[in-house]
Design brief:
Length: 457
């Protein structure tokens, strides 16, 4: 068993306690970041004369060799090491000898792990933001290719009004943009160097924390040593951002799952993203979308896990905080699998124009258009709502269309009706007459697609 402490203990750690407390089986994912932080720390120790410059150089060179092993997959973690920090320390000593014992000068595992996890988060926030951008591009491309397609839009999952499919797609793009903005804000708040805070009170040695910050390319140096080692807000914020992104992905998948059903039949997902049934040969299931929808449920669960973990902890570091990493790693790895998958999936979606045409073949989609026609004629909104509601009910009861009504019949509902109202009863007219900013007007949507393509370039 390898550990960095134990000189004041008279007996070995119980085997069960060892298995329960060791974290090498998951925190080995921090190895690259641990070496990176240690390289900056070693350079600072040498610059400040806290250790000889030649020893600092040996530390840096040894750590760089370990980084090469880690990145090439040749680094083998010892399961008997207590954690990743211990494992690297031991292997560094095997590599360079006694100078390795000087690396831990003026730091604790408390500030060390805080830095490692921050570097991990910064790296993966950048990756997730780039993946979201790729997904946005894929959706915008799909919207551009299908810009003339008009579909029913829904409230309460009941058909409501007509919109361009591209307008519907751009709603997802807007959601994902907010997700990126949140992640970018999280990046800034995470980008603060805690190293040099030591266990909790700092160090009496003449360390230069700002030099370490510069070496790491981080934005700021943390200002309170107690907060530095006990802060996990950045993990909670990242998990919150991932949870919101996951919620958006789930809603997106739900729409696509509905659209691919025989009842809707609006789109077809490429075979590469579908599976079959073990008993029903005809089945073609959108399992990938269902698994993304289901997989996103873990995000809010793991967010709550870390919130509850932290909510009653006194300052400063407590060993409970070791358990933040499984939740973090799980969510980050899961979202990084989902985003590229959906990016590729959107590239192969085909639109079924015939089914969509059948779905929009109802004149009751135009009820709001007719209502606003009356408003333009001077009828109050409330009165216009009642007029159109009465007309729709009577037509439904009699099994006739609004377009079947004569001028005399129309004017029984309101003298303001003219036969020109029938010009509104076409899908392309319904979307074209929308004038408000952000609406489904084809000209506006086309401009939005162009703007998004430019923004995401």
């Amino acid at each position: 068993m390898t550990k960095l402490w134990g000189s004041r203990f008279t007996s070995k750690l119980n085997k069960l306690a060892q298995n329960f407390t060791f974290s090498i089986d998951y925190d080995h994912k921090l190895a690259r970041y641990d070496c990176r932080g240690s390289i900056a720390h070693a350079r600072m120790l040498g610059k400040q004369g806290i250790i000889p410059k030649k020893d600092a150089a040996k530390l840096v060179n040894g750590l760089k060799q370990l980084v090469k092993r880690i990145e090439s997959g040749r680094y083998k973690f010892d399961p008997k090491s207590e954690d990743v920090h211990t494992d690297i320390q031991v292997k560094l000593k095997e590599l360079i000898g006694a100078p390795a014992d000087k690396l831990h000068t003026a730091r604790s595992r408390n500030d060390q792990v805080a830095l490692d996890v921050k570097l991990y988060c910064l790296d993966h926030i950048s990756t997730i933001v780039a993946m979201i951008k790729d997904l946005q591009k894929s959706i915008v491309d799909f919207a551009g290719k299908n810009n003339g397609v008009i579909i029913p839009a829904y409230t309460h999952l009941q058909s409501a009004q007509l919109v361009l499919m591209s307008h519907h797609m751009l709603a997802y793009v807007e959601m994902l943009q907010r997700d990126k903005d949140r992640l970018k804000g999280c990046f800034v708040r995470t980008d603060s160097n805690p190293l040099g805070s030591c266990a909790l009170s700092g160090s009496s040695l003449p360390i230069d924390r700002n030099f370490v910050t510069q070496q790491l390319g981080m934005l700021t140096t943390s200002q309170n040593s107690m907060d530095s080692v006990s802060d996990r807000d950045f993990i909670i914020e990242l998990l919150s951002d991932i949870s919101i992104t996951g919620m958006h992905l789930s809603r997106m998948c739900e729409d696509l799952i509905l659209w691919v059903t025989a009842e809707f039949d609006f789109i077809r997902i490429d075979d590469a993203f579908c599976t079959g049934s073990s008993i029903m040969p005809h089945k073609r299931n959108p399992d990938v979308l269902e698994l993304v929808r289901g997989g996103t449920s873990k995000f809010p669960g793991r967010l709550c896990e870390v919130l509850i973990l932290m909510k009653s902890l006194p300052l400063t570091y407590n060993r409970d905080m070791q358990m933040d990493k499984p939740a973090l790693f799980d969510c980050v790895e899961t979202i990084e699998h989902m985003l590229p998958l959906l990016t590729e999936l959107f590239k192969g979606i085909k639109v079924n124009n015939k089914s969509i045409a059948n779905a929009v073949d109802s004149q009751y989609f135009y009820s709001v258009d007719i209502l606003e026609y009356l408003v333009k004629k001077g009828v109050s909104y409330r009165q216009a709502h009642d007029i159109v509601g009465s007309m729709a009910k009577n037509c439904l009861d009699k099994g006739i269309k609004i377009s079947d009504l004569s001028l005399t019949q129309l004017q029984k509902y309101s003298k303001r009706f003219g036969l020109d109202v029938k010009k509104l009863l076409k899908p392309e007219v319904s979307v074209k007459i929308k004038r408000s900013a952000g609406s489904t007007n084809p000209t506006m949507v086309k401009k939005q697609i162009t703007a998004w393509k430019k923004k995401l370039k």
